[in-house]
Amino acid sequence: MAMATILFATSCQPTPPQGGGEPEPPVRELQVKFANMLHLPFEVEVANTVNVSAKITVLNGTLSNVNLYYTVTENEVIGDEQIVEMTPASIGYYEADIPAQAGGAIVKYWIEASGFDFEGADFNEVSDMGNYIVTGENPDTGDDPNPGDTPVVPVEDPCKAIRLNEISTGASIGEYIEIYNTSNKEVNLDGVAIYKNCDYEEPLIVLDGVTMPGESYGVLFVKQTNLTLPSTAMLLGTTDRGLASSRALCVELGRDAGATIYDTYTNTINPYTDATDWNTDPVEMEAKFFARFTDGWYSAGIQTPGDVNLDPQVKLKHQKNIALAVSDAPYVSRMGFDPTSIVEGKTLTVYAYVYSDAYSTIQSVQCSVAGSTVTLNKVDSCRYEGSCRFDSDGDYVVTVTATNNDNRKYSLDNKVMVCPANTEFAPQTAVRLNEVNTDDKYIEFYNTSSKPVNLVGMYIEKNNEDILLFINDNIVLDGHSFAVLACGAKDYSSTDYLYLGSSDKGISGKKSLCIEWMASYPEKLRVDAFCNTKDTDPRPKVTVWDDPAGVEVAISSYSAIRYQDGVVAVKSQIEGNADLPNQWFYATSGSLGSSNNNLTRKGRLKNQMATIAPVPEE
Q: Secondary structure of 50-117 in the HEC alphabet?
């Protein structure tokens, strides 16, 4: 039996016509490919039963049977050829076990795949040969020479714990590939590679001299990405080969020219076949970036290179199964308490939604705050609850940590500002967008309440893709006062209002523009929005925002303002004395960090996104 991968290949070019006429149709090519063939454990000892697995792809044919063949050589004597039927482990993957052997034995194995080609003819294809040597002393089993009765001692490749974690394909926001070490142990990544579109000959990067700490992040920058990573994340390197969201994309984490694949991301609608042309293969979803959560890949609402994934949006349905399954850390989706209204001397009820994958179970969920730790108890299928008491005011970080039975952990932090007993914060929904100036590049906010508001967890999103600002700290906006965010690297720092800093990203009055003011705690909520588009249904549509023809009124020479500070509806004397929600006007001048009430209004912007959160009444 030949010990090599056989590819029956005939030319796919049309046969030249005899004496003119139409060319003959191309001959369809039978291809049987063996990939990811490996045995586990890699280092085999006397006690080990060995699992052999491989990915088998058949193009222009049907697979009917897969067998594993092996021989055992002991004391230079080759034993009889053994046959074991391989069973499907997942779509495209087959596996079978070789029993434990005596110390010093040499085991050689190969795979035979059989089936029918496109004309119904039989085929039998054979893989390359694999082999291993059994190490260790033979156990003293008395009269029983069979070492297979000895308990199996698993030996695993530590790189199985590394996962693809986030993929960004948006050139305007930075392209990158993020990986995550799901274990709590340091892992040597020498030889680990990242591949694109099944091109194993030219990986995007092959890691050398890289050691990844436990539960840490690594990021590969793609093309001219200019992003700043957290100090806790490592830069793996850079590549000039770009990614694409509008074409089929497959990113794989593996080694040895694709012989071993640890993890896979794909956006094609047929991820279990090797696409012959990634430039034309259908795409499931066109989005800027995707993030990994416990139950698969999602389009994400917040870009987090080198940090914990946030805000899953829409799940990708067509997931390629991971070649080497390992339990992931449990996922804490959110913590359910209002971080803005905690009062000294009162008890805070914390709840968290925690999810686990199919390979593990949740062992514990704990909440740590103010130097103490409490256990959150399961009250529903995935909801956990507990209580904490704050006996002094100040800033605190609340951390919920979920641990599974493999001791993998996932933690989510939330900022809390505890008020003195005689004070009270207003809800975050009291703060409204108040002015958008695209010439001077700033966005103004107004607190409609007389009480202070803690802005922690709030963020500004532009055109459904760019995060201009995410507030991670306890920042308090006083009652009936203004806050300003500068855009386009402007600097408007001042003591006359609360200055929120500057975003590198600009805002344009000549193109369609959508600004959304979002709350992330206790769950995602659109508090307020500003839109400048002709579209009468101005919900975020990514294809609209860069279209200048879609602008309702060019506000490049005006400032967009609320009718009165923070007022979202007015009584119209012209239009039937009805309430008109979300009233935005354009004015001849702006009022940076101060009241709009005395500005001269030129006209009303009509096509506004509906405000979600009502302004609280006092």
A: EEEEEEEEEECEEEEEEEEEEEEEECCEECCCEEEECEEEECCEEEEEECCCCCCCEEEEEEEEEEEE
